[in-house]
Specification:
5-stranded antiparallel sheet; alpha+beta; globular
Length: 594
């Protein structure tokens, strides 16, 4: 294949340019044709997104025709050898041309079931998130999992996979390899080999504070930091892995702090937290390889704990850096009765040094964090990067609705004091009220009828409330309305209730200057700037208490799911995040040059 350049594509006559992009979308040149109207392109990312917009704006009939233009996986076209050259290579790379008889029969049955349910063939980018090909078993498992999707959701997922196929084909045409993104991908795969007992045996990823797997992760990150050229690497008194790359004048420099956490939830994903450690590590490695020093130092922190899975305290790693480590936490015990103090001593950590970890904000320019989105927004928009405007403030309540338990058969509907129905009514209100704000969210995640029976009207219902919004006033208004509605429902239904606030966390708005730097970095990649709040908490919200902060989100695959083994992103999106981080460093270097 003769490789092309973006300059050649931009300069070519329309017909020639269209020919250069032939084969990206199966038998559908109209997508590339529509995108070419936006020439000149500054980057491949801009071209890719232009094609995403063209397809998104197309009528559903045209989208359906595109899906139906794709061959079945290991289907009749493969057997008859009538696939396009691109599809032949992709299915071959994934090993679908070498299925066992059992695998082939399973795929044929899945093809039949899928077509009967959806009316179009199953589409999967079989070269996968790294572009090297998915294992056959993973393909079959994905096929079976998506078979139960809602038809509209599966239609959209098919289109997203078509775009991923086109992205990989475009890379091939231009000879582009997301080299640094692949390196970050590989680091994450290797780190995921360490998992706590009871989960490792099941192939599940779980890394909780100061377990053997957690300490092995710290050791690996430390070694990789040294390999990347960091000048100082240490595991500090709470287990944070800290790497420092000095600036041009170490005696007078300030620091840019960045990083994220390396612990995980139980049976979690590989990218939550860890992506924010490895992206800046890759950038530091490139600076070191180039022999380049910036007018400031870079401090990358792999925070030891953020998730609160082993002990009740959370943000132990980032909290220690702002002086928020409480001595009483040391007496907390895990499910096995091991006190935090004992776990830290066994890990060789110097508890007496924890107060010394507090950073002086005067020595820092700010804190930035890269994180997988952990939600569906960027995935649905076809955008690889998003700029965070604020980390949501949240309020949590532990509640109980109290009515009267009575016989389900003999109590008339208009005489009941049903506690569960009262909570159900509140749940629907929470949905409506949070949606009014556009970016508030509300959840009743726990709902329990203690001692409930199938033939008893519930007299008690215990439930939780989790209410979040990008600003504290917006959160407080949401809380006030929900609690007022709770009181009104109870009065109307003849019920009583209790509501105890369990947590109140302030919102962490992004610093305007740092947010603009992320926005400039996204624009430099040729992508539109999409601003969004973070519904999840992050280490950045702790550092926010003492220094300016801002975050960059990276698109997740599989509907953006997180805290789940299906959590994923692509090496291409990781490469764009590395490019954006490098751009931010260069902006900051220009601003801080004497």
């Amino acid at each position: 294949m003769t490789l092309m350049t973006l300059d050649q594509l931009n300069a070519a006559p329309a017909a020639d340019a269209l020919q250069m992009l032939d084969g990206l979308y199966e038998h559908s040149p109209w997508i590339a044709e529509g995108a070419l109207a936006e020439r000149p392109f500054r980057s491949l990312a801009q071209l890719k997104h232009a094609m995403v917009r063209v397809l998104a704006a197309a009528p559903r009939d045209a989208q359906l025709a595109l899906i139906r233009a794709h061959p079945e996986l290991a289907g009749k076209a493969m057997v008859a050898r009538t696939l396009t050259a691109e599809s032949t290579g992709e299915q071959s790379r994934a090993g679908l041309t070498h299925c066992t008889p059992e695998e082939f029969d399973r795929l044929q049955q899945l093809n039949a079931d899928y077509n009967a349910r959806f009316g179009f063939p199953f589409i999967l980018a079989v070269r996968g998130p790294r572009g090297t090909g998915l294992p056959r078993q993973e393909i079959i498992e994905t096929f079976a999992r998506r078979l139960v999707n809602h038809p509209d959701a599966e239609f959209d997922e098919a289109l997203r996979n078509i775009h991923r196929i086109a992205e990989i084909r475009l890379n091939d045409k231009f000879g582009v390899e997301p080299t640094l993104g692949n390196d970050v991908w590989d680091w994450q795969e290797k780190l995921a080999q360490h998992s706590d007992p009871g989960f490792a045996e099941q192939g599940q990823l779980t890394v909780t504070y100061l377990t053997d797997a957690h300490r092995a992760c710290a050791q690996r990150i430390s070694h990789w930091m040294r390999d990347c050229g960091f000048d100082e690497v240490e595991v500090d008194a709470v287990g944070n892995v800290v790497g420092r790359y000095h600036g041009a004048d170490p005696e007078r420099q300030k620091w840019l702090m960045t990083g994220s956490h390396y612990d995980t939830v139980r049976n979690g994903g590989k990218y939550d937290g860890r992506l924010g450690i490895f992206i800046p590590m890759a950038c530091v490695r490139e600076l070191h390889r180039a022999g380049r020093r910036l007018p400031f130092g870079i401090e990358v922190v792999g925070f030891a704990e953020e998730e609160g899975q082993r002990y009740k305290a959370t943000f132990l790693g980032s909290g220690a850096l702002i002086g928020d480590f409480r001595p009483e936490w040391l007496d907390q015990r895990d499910a096995d009765g091991i006190a935090m103090r004992e776990a830290m001593q066994q890990a060789g950590l110097c508890i007496d040094d924890i107060p010394k970890l507090r950073r002086d904000p005067a020595g820092y320019l700010g804190f930035v964090e890269v994180h997988i989105e952990q939600g569906p927004v960027l995935n649905e928009l076809g955008l690889p990067l998003g700029v965070v405007t604020s980390i949501n403030g949240s309020a949590r309540y532990v509640c109980e609705m109290l009515g009267v338990a009575s016989h389900a058969g003999t109590t008339p509907m208009d005489r009941r004091r049903d506690a569960a129905s009262g909570v159900a009514e509140l749940a629907l209100y929470v949905e409506r009220r949070a949606a009014q704000d556009g970016d508030s969210v509300g959840t009743i995640g726990q709902l329990n009828v203690p001692g409930g029976s199938i033939n008893v009207v519930p007299g008690r219902c215990a439930f939780s409330l989790d209410l979040r919004a990008p600003t504290d006033p917006q959160r407080d208004a949401l809380v006030a309305d929900v609690l007022a509605e709770l009181a009104a429902i109870a009065q109307r239904r003849g019920l009583r209730f209790t509501a105890e606030r369990a947590m109140l966390v302030s919102a962490a708005p992004s610093d305007a200057g740092w947010q603009r730097r992320w926005e400039a970095a996204v624009e430099a990649a040729g992508l539109p700037v999409f601003r969004m709040p973070s519904g999840a908490g992050h280490d950045a919200m702790k550092l926010h208490e003492i220094m300016p902060q801002a975050m960059l989100f990276v698109r997740g695959q599989n509907g953006g799911i997180s805290h789940n083994p299906l959590e994923s992103t692509t090496s291409d999106d990781m490469q764009l995040a590395i490019d954006a981080f490098s751009h931010l460093l260069n902006q900051l270097a220009q601003e801080n040059n004497p």
